[in-house]
Amino acid sequence: MFTGIVQGTAEVLAIEEKPNFRTHIVRLPDELLPGLELGASVSHNGCCLTVTGVDGNRVSFDLVKETLRITNLGDLKPGDIVNVERAAKFSDEIGGHLMSGHIMTTAEICKILTSENNREIWFKPQDSEQMKYILHKGFIGIDGISLTVGEVTKSKFCVHLIPETLARTTLGGKRLGDRVNIEIDPHTQAIVETVERVLAQREAALLAAAAAEIQPEE
Questions:
Q1: Residue at 206 is within a domain
Q2: How many CA atoms within 13 Å lie on the side-chain side of 78?
Q3: Tell me: the pLDDT tens digits for 90-136?
Q4: Which end of the chain has fewer CB atoms surrounding its CB within 10 Å, N or C?
């Protein structure tokens, strides 16, 4: 589990292509290295990855084909920067919201509005079905950052970013057309799907009752 509070950024040093997967080697910040072992979980742009090699501050991670397909990690090249966060401990402060590191879809940046101390960024999810889980003032994970949803339309949504978020994460350098990873808040997803299921059951019961009433008498 992760908190959505990005602990730093890491440069992709090298990418090794292998059959049906690839290995990313990144330079982790020194403050994230203590206690790091093989098998540890580290979030890259919100995607939970497992440490497969440690050589000083050069840390390796294997990415399977499905991860490369669903997330924006498949777009990375050496020199690119990713948001990173180590797995949360029980004693950690949850400054954002609990995140699993399981990316649901990606979204394209379709509009950027900048003012003196604020930046409003609009996103259009690749999978439009995910919009039903994105609610005004709800939680969402964008490239591993816990954010509050601003306005929502039928096909897109926005977030408002303070200078601290822009300075500490990769969102400060994003441009129109860039893709970001989206993790839906699991609590919101559970509530929406439960309501849908209950309404569907009620509708089915009403239809069955109506059909029984119009059955011809023998």
A1: no
A2: 7
A3: 766 667 788 999 999 999 999 999 988 889 999 999 999 999 999 99
A4: C
